[in-house]
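Appendix B, Record 12. Input sequence as logged:
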Amino acid sequence: MGLMRKFPKSNSRCRWLAVLGCLVFLFGCQSNVDYSDIPVQKIYDGDTIRVANGERVRFIGVDCDEIHDNDKLLWDVKRTGIPAETLKASGRKAFAFTRNLLAGRSVRLTFDIERRDKYGRLLAYVWVRARGSDFNRPEYYITDVHIDGEGNVPYVFVNASLAKAGMARPMNIRPDTTFAGLFQSLYEEARSSGHLVVIP
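Logged structural output:
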């Protein structure tokens, strides 16, 4: 009602400018969020999480099998000819992998060209600081990340670890393909060694 009193119906241009200003403010605030160390709030499945500011995050470049009945599961059943329950079993293994790696921890998010997918999810490469026990997990892809003021810090690269563990297939969607070659090679290694969990 307050907006309607300030901007009468006859002045639709002013109303649209006010709405546009609100949108710019909201999206501008989102761009100032610090994603260098943000707690994981919820793990939805193998390749999707929610972080502490409420953002739903979809991992770039990898695709795990579904754990719930949905349109993508139906499409995967049609594409592969594999029963839904078999695909969901694979999805549950990927979910457990991501949960074991990220539950109760904070992550660093980095981005490629596009920030969001068509569902509004944040598209990100997900990194978590490597702990002592992580170095004993050969399925984790651990690499040094240079952080100003700290030098090189070992991180588990979650997207790459899913491919290395055979929990996810590469999913290259342009223009977000910075690590496409890495994900493909890790997936092929898992496949050739018989460690592929995800349905090809």
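The mean pLDDT is 85.
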